[in-house]
Amino acid sequence: MLNFNKAIITCAVTGSVHTPTMSPHLPISPDEIAEAAIGAAEAGAAVVHLHARLPDGRPTADPKVFEQFVPRIREATNAVINISTGGAPGMTMDERLAAARALRPELVSLNMGSINFGFHQMAARYSEWKHDWEKEFLLSSREKYSVNSFAVLESIVGELGANGTSFEFECYDIGHLYNLKYLEDIGVAKGPFMIQFIFGFMGGIGVHPSHLEHFYETAERLFGDRYYMSVLAAGKQQMRFGVMSASRGGGVRVGLEDSLYIAPRQLARTNAEQVTLIREVLEKLHIPVATPDEARAALALRGRT
Questions:
Q1: Could you count the other beta carbons within 10 Å of the beta carbon of residue 201?
Q2: Rounded CA gap, 219 and 110, in Å?
Q3: Strand (E) positions, 133-292?
Q4: d(CA 226, CA 97)
Q5: 3-state SS class at 165
Q6: Beta carbons within 8 Å of 163's beta carbon, 6+ residues apart
Q7: In order of start, what are the domains of the chain with their CATH numbers?
Q8: 92: pLDDT confidence band, cut at 50, 70 and 90?
Q9: N or C, where is the chain less crowded by C-beta within 10 Å?
């Protein structure tokens, strides 16, 4: 791994899976997303990972919606802006790339392979819904999948990379690390790589400490000192896996995209609340937390424009 030894905190403020019924604190409107990201940055997040939503909470990839909050975040913070290219299940590739093409952020996320991405089981937890679309949206994920073929990966990295955008390579399984190595071997992707190890989403690898060890050992073998690992774990393991990553010199992702809770059966009121918790834990363990500019330097980002 990179000889950096600081924890880059990423905050994923809203995502595209959780629905308004699940938490009254989920940011929906552009104002709420902007406020959530700004609050997370003020609490210590070096990177803010962004999705967009329509007024009723449905995910959208419309650049015009992103344009209502991304400039505000840039103006109010020094945080690294990271825009999703994953969007939501069912979106076309052009839809998924539209915001990144329009806004040319420093960083974008990129799923490193085609995966089933199921969250249909969450529908059984609720009997009443705030909006009519929510239940069917969740259930429909049983039949949908995210397609990122080798041709798609090469095209996205080539196109967005030409604009100076860097990548958070999201790996949901061990094979995704080998997909990234393929992109490096053919000269499409160049380090240093920010690799997000992802655990706990149905269709990807499960949440177990042995899986994190396997990910780490594989990445070390494939990339040596050319990568920086960050870790996200969906649900109740969010903080624990983050601490394990930071203890090895890596980063951690928190935020309401990945977990709606701050403690057992206690909803997080803000994204900043989660950032504050993980920052305080790391500081008590004497693990230094990276500033946005330190993250930029370590990951060789192009910087703010």
A1: 21
A2: 17
A3: 145-146, 166-171, 193-199, 227-233, 251-254, 261-263, 266-267
A4: 26
A5: coil
A6: 104
A7: 9-299 (3.20.20.70)
A8: confident
A9: C
